[in-house]
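Re: beginner question about structure tokens

> Can someone show what the tokenized structure looks like for a real chain? I only ever see the sequence side.

Sure, here's an example I had lying around. Input first:
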Amino acid sequence: MNRTTDDDRTLPPALAELARTEIDYADGEGIDFEPYDAFDPAEETTDWLRQWTGNAGVDGDAYRVFGQDGTGGLAALWSVRPGRPLTEQPVVFLGSEGERGVVAGNLSDFLWMLADGCGPWEALFHEDRKPRPDAALTALAERHAVTPRRPARTVVAEARAEFPTFAEDIEALCR
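And the corresponding structure tokens:
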């Protein structure tokens, strides 16, 4: 199931497989990302977003949280493209200290980003990071991605260009 509905909490196959794939942190030189084996429940996402923004009037309906970094920052599919499947929605990162950004234009691009050795936290903070290809994540991307392989730096730049006001839009929700 990949359609976007208010109650769609079924992981797309690529995320389900990612949850079963070991991601190498490599003592801080690898990827700081822990995928979940299920989306966070809607209520939990809303509670978290309200705490994160300090705004009791927001809800988390547009987000499907599917993983975190070591500090508790969350990666989510952002349902911003009406009527499009979850796999075609951008991937965003909302950090534990207020960091935020779009890191990939869709799930396929996110898989290529991971294959290049870059997680969502690294995408926000280490744009100049040297590629560190990962064989298992590359194989996963080759099985599931429908977009062409590109370096993580390109994936992130394309996503930011498509959604240039994401960080400001989130900031406007904060109280």
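Each token stands for a local structural state, so reading them left to right follows the chain. The mean pLDDT is 93.
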